[in-house]
């Protein structure tokens, strides 16, 4: 099967935020997989982890690892993927963790045009 669309994983535990982000990404032309928690990533991606172009992760995924930790683990297979971390908290730990991992960071609510600009900056 030929795939021409960029493949994006959205790691977001809030269903409304996940749906809104998915719509933005699909409108941009991406194929989107969604996982609400680390335990659901394998089901969302199947055998396509290596195909990922982008990972957009909420920092706080509730109980379990952070979005930074999940994205870091995925990069062992999806080595070419760019990562954007979104955070709804003003505490500095999310920003520090994202930057330390080499990931880009945006505060929520992130504007659709800012997300698209980040996608197109690659």
Which outline best applies?
Answer: globular
The name of the CATH topology is Rossmann fold
How many domains? The number is: 1
C-alpha Rg (nearest Å): 13 Å
* Low-confidence segments: none
Structural class based on helices, strands and sheet pairing: alpha/beta
Neighbour order of strands in the largest sheet: 2-1-3-4-5
CATH class: Alpha Beta
Beta-strand proportion: 15-25%
Spell the H/E element sequence: EHEHEHEHEH
SS element count, helices: 5
Name given to the CATH homologous superfamily: Response regulator
Number of strands: 5
Helix content: 25-40%
Indicate the mean pLDDT. 93
Distance between the termini: 25 Å
State the major sheet: 5 strands, parallel
At CATH level 2, the architecture is 3-Layer(aba) Sandwich
Explained architecture:
This protein has a single domain, classed as Response regulator (Rossmann fold, 3-Layer(aba) Sandwich). The chain has a 5-stranded parallel β-sheet with strand order 2-1-3-4-5, with helices on both faces. α1 links the parallel β1 and β2. It is of the alpha/beta class and 122 residues long. The protein has 5 helices and 5 strands, in the order βαβαβαβαβα. The chain is globular and about 40 Å long. 37% of the residues lie in helices and 20% in strands.
């Amino acid at each position: 099967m030929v795939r021409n669309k960029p493949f994006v994983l959205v790691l977001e535990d809030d269903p409304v935020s996940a749906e809104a982000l998915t719509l933005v990404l699909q409108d941009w032309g991406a194929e989107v997989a969604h996982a609400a928690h680390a335990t659901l990533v394998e089901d969302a991606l199947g055998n396509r982890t290596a195909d990922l172009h982008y990972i957009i992760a909420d920092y706080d995924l509730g109980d379990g690892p952070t979005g930074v930790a999940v994205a870091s683990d995925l990069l062992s297979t999806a080595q070419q993927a760019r990562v954007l971390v979104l955070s709804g908290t003003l505490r500095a730990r999310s920003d520090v963790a994202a930057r330390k991992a080499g990931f880009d960071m945006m505060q929520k609510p992130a504007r659709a045009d800012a997300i698209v600009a980040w996608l197109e900056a690659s």
